[in-house]
Write a structure and sequence with these properties.
By secondary structure, this protein is α/β, with parallel strands linked by helices. It is about 30% helix and about 15% strand. Bound molecules: NADPH dihydro-nicotinamide-adenine-dinucleotide phosphate and oxalic acid.
Length: about 325
């Protein structure tokens, strides 16, 4: 260990994955792991960098010497909501493994709904051998992605490889080969063409509750899947869950795959659990690989210490 600036780790992740990654990480720095009870009352003023996921609200007040904050994930709503947040650069986690995982989830769910996954799973439980006639092809289905950032843009390209028609919506218009894109003003035109809606938006003041009955009722109802389908792996706070349950029950939505929820873990009494047309994953679409996270932090800290600008810095004003 040298006298290089100390790194504070406050990651509310699976503890084992943090413990496995820590011994190889930051070899020439002091690491203060807040998951270790021995550090509970430690003086944190010597730490220059913090790597956090859902940090202790008191952490930033105690760590008064910080120069930058690193999010343990791509999203930063868990940091921006901290009422003691200092005015420091916040760096998102952007990494190939995370991007690949998210695209796998989006492709998996799109194929599940295209290929009648619920019906065949039901048939299997009843030992029924029956092929569904008129199987649509991916090329007959339009997948509309809300949020064309790092994750949405990659998912778009991978869905295209499978033959889906892909369109996308984001605040500013994007240029992605073979993908028709819309800016904020094009929402209605975008929704009206969408058979499978994919939510990959960050949670901000503008996106809170955006997936609601009004939005679902503007999705295409003339597609080959027999009704619009909603996939959300962005943030649960963007979905109105009462509207979701109602729309999934009255046919406004045919089905949904949900990885994120307003309150996590999803409460045991949520009606979403019991709906036969909903597939639930426990915020597992694209978990951060902790070793990759620590490598990314090391790289960014090195940049900063070499006088280069940090990458993937959050714009506090837009909230992502
Ligand atoms: P980016 O910041 O790269 O992209 C965000 C996209 O959303 C951009 O295209 C942005 O538009 C668009 N956007 C933001 N606000 C609005 C708005 N008000 N109206 C229209 N478009 C908007 O984020 P990532 O792609 O890396 O990640 C997206 C989110 O995915 C994360 O914030 C996180 O919440 C979630 N996530 C979930 C995971 C899981 O396991 N379920 C794992 C990782 C991330 P523009 O391009 O114009 O700025
Ligand atoms: C993230 C997440 O933001 O895991 O990376 O949700």
């Amino acid at each position: 260990m040298t006298d290089k600036s100390a790194i504070l780790i406050d990651l509310r992740f699976d503890r084992e994955s943090v413990l496995r990654a820590l011994p190889e990480a930051f070899p020439d720095r002091t690491v203060i792991d807040m998951g270790d009870p021995a550090n509970r009352d430690r003086d944190l003023s010597s730490a220059s960098y913090a790597v956090v996921w859902k940090p202790d609200p008191e952490l930033f007040r105690r760590a008064s010497g910080l120069k930058a904050i690193f999010s343990g994930g791509a999203g930063v709503d868990h940091i921006l909501s901290n009422y003691n947040l200092p005015d420091l650069p916040i760096v998102r986690f952007v990494d190939r493994s995370l991007t690949d995982r998210m695209s796998e989830w989006v492709v998996w769910q799109s194929l599940h709904h295209l290929r009648n996954g619920f019906v065949y799973a039901d048939q299997q439980r009843s030992r029924v051998w029956r092929e569904i006639a008129d199987q649509p092809e991916a090329r007959d289905v339009t997948v509309g992605i809300m949020g064309l950032g790092v994750l949405g843009a990659d998912a778009a390209v991978k869905l295209k490889v499978l033959g889906f028609r892909v369109i996308g919506w984001s605040r500013s218009k994007k240029d992605i080969s073979g993908v028709e894109t819309f800016d904020a003003n094009g929402l209605d035109e975008f929704l009206g063409q969408t058979d499978i809606l994919v939510g990959l938006l960050p949670l901000t003041d503008d996106t809170r509750g955006i997936y609601n009955r009004s939005l679902f009722s503007r999705l295409s109802r003339s597609g080959v899947l027999g009704g619009p389908i909603f996939l959300n792996a962005g943030r649960g706070g963007s979905q109105n869950e009462d509207d979701l349950v109602a729309c999934l029950s009255d046919g406004t939505l045919k089905a949904a795959s949900l990885d994120v929820f307003v309150k996590e873990p999803l409460e045991r009494n949520s009606s979403l659990w019991g709906l036969p047309n909903v597939l639930i994953t426990p915020h597992a679409a694209a978990s951060s690989d902790v070793r990759a996270l620590f490598r990314h932090v090391e790289q960014q800290v090195r940049r900063l210490e070499n006088g280069e600008p940090l990458q993937f810095v959050v714009d506090r004003l837009s909230g992502y």
